[in-house]
Amino acid sequence: MMKRPDFYPVRSLIYVDLAKEDYRIKLENWLYRYHIPDSISQFGPYVSKYAFYQALPVAPGGERFGAVRMQLTEHYWLANPNDIREFVHHKALTEFFPPDVLVWQNNLPDPEGPHVITSEEKAGEGEVNMEGDDARSTKGNEELGTVPFIFAFIPVWWEEDFKGEGRTVEDGPNYRWQFMVRYPEGVSQEEGDKWLFDEFIKAYTDQDECIRCLSSKIMKEVNGCDFDRVVEMWFPCESAWVTATKNAGEKVAKPAWAETEDFPYFKKSYGISSIFLSDIARSDNLTQYRGYITMR
After folding, report:
1. Which of 15, 146, 166, 263 is most buried, most CB within 10 Å of its CB?
2. pTM of the full predicted structure?
């Protein structure tokens, strides 16, 4: 008898960067024309929510927090998509995922940029399509200025509530700053979390500008994500984030394992990656997507 996937509700977050503004419409075209229908065709039966949240412009000073510039992709899974590979599981159609997408997303070096293409990279020049799961495991290259493909799984509900419980939609819209951190090699989750909670997060939540703060540990066992924890903080507006960040930078004690000399003490994109968001999705794909319908 064939083994069946277990019921395994879990939420996932994908950070999508943008290498340069010239690529925004190219990436948007691929996402909405090809990727949404491809994705729904593959996982529609076992995903309850699949949404795109448009990134807001990077706030002044946000670059050092590894801010991505395109979107957050969110899924709510009913089964672990990685466990499914352990069963008899053949895709009738392979995703359309040309390597250019990873260039547009800043995960691979731009052939049009200053980087000299290596022989290994040239070997893949003729590649027309990538397997989607392979594309989503791209690690990036810090020396070349590219960023990792971040695909993190977290519990359906937030695990930690630091500030703002009881807030409702009647309290007004929220300027959301979501970020993930990866502790340096040799730093345990417990050690890293203690500094993050006692120093970093507290420096924000002690301020009136921060109105909500939530966090969860990343479920690394699901897909081997390199990052350790996700945090989401809300502010009334961009300028409130700027003020709070300036104040926090003056208060947070530098940890012994700091990767940089200056706040936030993580390497951008590889130690910390973040995105600025509003409250609502640009497209809740399972309920709103109707195809790639262009403006007249």
Report:
1. 15
2. 0.92
